[in-house]
Amino acid sequence: MAEIFELGIADIRSGVASGDFTAKEVAETFIGRVSAAKALNAVLVETPDHALAAAEATDKAKAAGETLGKMAGVPIGMKDLFCTEGVATTAGSLILEGFTPQYESTVSSNLFKAGAGMLGKLNMDQFAMGSSNETSAFGNVISPWRRNDGGNTDMAPGGSSGGSAAVVSGRICPAATGTDTGGSIRQPAAFVGITGFKPTYGRCSRWGTIAFASSLDQAGPMAHDVRDCAIMLEAMAGFDPKDSTSLELPVPEWEAGLKSDLAGKRIGIPKEYRVDNMPPEIDALWQQGIEWLKDAGAKIVEVSLPHTKYALPAYYIIAPAEASSNLARYDGVRYGMRDLPDGAGLQDMYAATREAGFGPEVKRRIMIGTYVLSAGYYDAYYTQAQKVRTLISQDFDKAWESCDLLLTPTAPSAAFGLGEKSDDPLAMYLNDVFTVPSSLAGLPAISVPAGLDGQGLPLGLQIIGKALDEQSVFNAGLALEERAGFVAKPEQWW
Amino acid sequence: MSMTESTYRIQGGTGEWEVVIGLEVHAQITTNAKLFSGASTEFGAEPNTQVSLVDAAMPGMLPVLNKECVRQAVRTGLAIDAQINKYSRFDRKNYFYADLPQGYQISQLYHPIVGEGKIEISLDEKDPDAHGKTIGVERIHIEQDAGKLMHDQHPTMSYVDLNRCGVALMEIVSMPDMTSPKEAAAYVRKLRSILRYVGSCDGNMEQGSMRADVNVSVRKPGDELGTRTETKNVNSLRYIQQVIEYEAQRQVDVIESGGDIVQETRLFDPDKNETRSMRSKEDAHDYRYFPDPDLLPLELEDDFIFDCKASLPELPDEKRARYKNVLGLSAYNAAVLTAEHETAIWFEELLETTDEPEKIASSAANWLTSELFGALNKMGLSIEKSPVSPQQAAELLGLVADGTISGKIAKQVFEIMLETGDGAAKIVEEKGLKQESDTGAIEKVIADVMAANEDKVAQYRGGKDKLFGFFVGQTMKAMQGKANPQVVNELLKKTLGPAG
User: Fold this and answer.
1) Residue A474's domain spans which residues?
2) Half-sphere CA count of B232, side-chain side, radius 13 A
3) Contact call for B60 and A335, based on CB within 8 A
4) pLDDT band for position B233 (cuts 50, 70, 90)
5) Structural domain contains residue A11
6) Between chains, do A325 and B63 touch, taking CB under 8 Å as contact?
7) So what's the ipTM on this one?
8) Is A108 a member of any domain?
């Protein structure tokens, strides 16, 4: 039998339910894994007491013969973007240093109600702005993966949910929450060979999740496989009257609906996603994915999403615009850092606090956002970007006339070494080229690990579905997963 | 028809100047909770005791629209005959200030909930011949109020009270249709009356529930509009008029001495009775308005609008017309009784005690505007706090109408009612104030009076008809005022015979 730390959500849940091990044993195992993984810098705050308390509650409920929750006995990692009651929450930024929320985000609260415990708060790109975890104010996360060249270059775990990616792939937490604004679940999942799911915008409440770009931010699961993601998303999702953009719909039983037979499904291959300079390995994997889906019974059709090339520029206008306003509340007055130089007035305090508290990437995006909303530029940038967003949504609507799902690579490259792209923001932004369009359209999408590149690094394939049709996305993901047989794991060096 | 007020002019060295005024009235919506949070809106609470996580802009907090605020804004729009926009949207107005924790105010710039409407004003509602005018309303939108800074609590620091932060306001923007301080005051008075009728704002200017940004410009009659200035947060009718007078004169002086008016925001200093520049257009904030991504566009259903319409009470203009045309009240009484909703409610409760309100309406209105208002005024009470209820008043007026007591005795009874809270009939009974209408008893007193004043009887019969009043007075006096004056008159005429 596998060691407990190698198990994912479904296996832990059934092991606890059948009495193979107790929830407490599971919690203790992962608490040990967390405290032994400090070299990865993936966990900002360890919360062993939380994980133990949840485990004990599960064991007690089981002993009492009570029905166990969907996540009973499963300890998870929590991206530090989720406000957790009584546990420091920073969004990876100095400006929130010392902030301890007196409230629990809806997503974390839902997970806890389903029986999950929390192992710790996970490092991330500052305010979820980044694709490599290098914008965290608390040092970057190091990926558990290394190139197979015998070297020891530290690899980027992807971002912004890099801490989540690292702990799940390193078997330090069996699963973790992520958030995805333009690819922040899917790209890191692809970089570390795990499965990440971004649901339809509005499935998961944003209440208590620190905002980056409100119209794009969505929470989702990052886990070993498709089934685990389905289980965890069922626990996370649901209508929340405290979030006006939350969908007032029941949560489907995705796990029960899992089916890898794709007979009757049409899979679209968007021709605009064949970008210049794409590594041949990624193109080859994409072709392989097409074959796998055919094998699962799907029909493959070529489709066109003609406005794809405008998605990234539109995203880098809309997301910073919203961020520039969302981040105005970090002013040093009520929580977090305050820098009050001698003799400073109100405006000086704002300036000093924000200068010291925000990292360079956050400042860059606040400045971009402020610029594109300014009088005289608003129409040329923001209004135009919103029009592009509408056109991109219409591209997808049109595609759905001839197909049910889309298959694309998740990212245009495998993981890169830390520092290799950090001085070129535009190159970094290109990481999101395949994930951003579906974010702009609010569509559900999954990244499934599908293979390794020549350097032994994982590569992911992405399935994008229609709004609210998470089930088909999960099912196609499962078909890929079964055929890819991805079992590679990073060797433990930390 | 008096038109003097419509031709308000500033006399400058170069001739007459016309003043053009537009008002942006901020009216706090009457609701228990804030626009986007559940925190209380009660006035006068200890600082920072009515602040939710949303109001304090804690990380990850999201606004949820309070539907009651939407309802009140729509009802207000319907009350001024305005277009209701079935699609509206909230925008963020971004700026940094200590009273604004979010760093933005949620408002409605691009798509307000209420479009164009109008308000009929009269410079003197009580004068049927007063100059009337229609003032256009450009729009009404909903927005959040900011917190309050207190600069007098500490020698080097300012304190912030977030209780007001997030409270719902309607911004009611007029067209530049007013041309005199009095018109502006009449507009605000009428708007306040409508808001109070609708129940969407308590109109309390002292507590800040209603305040105005006053836009003023001047021009030579017939010229294009001049450059305007905006004086912020003026919170009384008197100050609004003072701001206009001061600003118009200042602008004329600047222009006539060769200067230009700068488009700017100004502040009113009531102690010095002057306005001062706050910031010019060049220093104006770039608010970077954009649609709030935390809120969905607001789409109103026909049923909702219909229900809002059905929930409106009879509004002051309709009510005044009905009081005049159906109840037969004088223009003065109709205006006085409808100006405040509470007065009209009181009056109508009184009328409800009878099946034929037209019969008592005029006498009741007269009594209310003289006796009741006089008494309340003396006691410093509003009509809702009147110690005499409309039903008690009806009882008193009924005793006069059926001849049980005279009007004069009624005043006396009313005094006692105010003091004791007793009913009129009980007081009349206990104090023996019933009016004497028995002709026998009155005839006997008349005979006594005539016997005691034989000389005056002779003079009267000799043609001095003015003495008639003397006999009435003597008879009433002898009967302690309780005689029915009509009966006294008739009997005296009969007994004394014709004068001369």
Assistant:
1) 4-264+410-484
2) 8
3) no
4) very high
5) yes
6) no
7) 0.96
8) yes
pLDDT tens digits, one per residue of A83-93: 999 999 999 99
What radius of gyration, in Å, describes the C-alpha atoms of chain B? 30
Residue-wise pLDDT tens digits, B23-46 = 999 999 999 999 999 999 998 899
Q: How many other C-beta atoms lie within 10 A of the C-beta of residue B74?
A: 26
How many domains are contained in chain A?
Answer: 1
Rounded to an integer, the average pLDDT of A335-342 is 94
What CATH number is attached to the domain comprising A81? Answer: 3.90.1300.10
> Tokens standing for A309?
């090339």
C-alpha A406/C-alpha B113 separation (Å) is: 40
Interface with A, mutate which of B156, B290, B299 (most A CBs under 10 A): B290
Could you read off the pLDDT of B150-204 as tens digits, one per residue? 989 999 888 999 999 999 999 999 999 999 999 999 999 999 999 999 999 999 9
The enclosing H or E element of B22 equals: strand B15-28
Amino acid at the residue B45: A
How far does B103 lie from chain A, in Å, by closest CA?
A: 5
Q: Does A242 touch chain B (CB under 8 A)?
A: yes
**What is the pTM for the complete model shown?**
0.91
For A91, A141, B233, the CA distances from A422, given in Å and listed in that order, are: 19, 14, 50
Nearest CA in chain B to A372: B288
- Which chain A positions have a beta carbon within 8 Å of B101's beta carbon? 329, 331, 333-334
Rounded Cα–Cα distance for residues B89 and B28 (Å): 19
- Concerning whether A79 is annotated as a catalytic residue, the answer is yes
- What are the φ and ψ backbone dihedral angles of B241, each rounded to 5 degrees? -65, -40
Position B1 scores a pLDDT of 34
Task: Evaluate if residue A125 carries a pLDDT over 50.
Answer: yes
Q: How far is B129 from chain A (nearest CA, A)?
A: 49
- The residues that bridge with A451 in the sheet, in sequence order, are A459
Report the SS3 class of residue A334: coil
Helix axis angle for A470-484 and A226-236, nearest 10°, is 150
- Over residues B372-399, mean pLDDT: 93
The DSSP symbol for B50 reads S
Q: What is the DSSP string of A221-255?
A: EEESSHHHHHHHHHHH----TT-TTS--SPPP-TT
Residue A330 included in any domain: no
Q: Which residue has the tokens 């309390």?
A: B204
Indicate whether A286 belongs to any domain.
no
The pLDDT tens digits of the residues spanning B284-336 come to 789 999 999 999 999 999 999 999 999 999 999 999 999 999 999 999 999 99
Q: Which of B58, B162, B285 to mutate to test the interface with A (most CBs of A within 10 A)?
A: B58
At residue B3 the predicted structure's pLDDT band, cuts being 50, 70 and 90, is very low
The minimum CA-CA distance between A344 and chain B, rounded to whole Å, is 11
Domains of chain B: 4-307 (no CATH), 313-431 (no CATH), 439-496 (1.10.10.410)
- The span from the first CA to the last CA of chain A, in angstroms, equals 24
The yes-or-no verdict on residue B223 having pLDDT over 50 is yes
Q: Is A205 a catalytic residue?
A: no
Taking the Cβ of residue A99 and every Cβ of chain B, the question of whether any pair is shorter than 8 Å is answered with yes
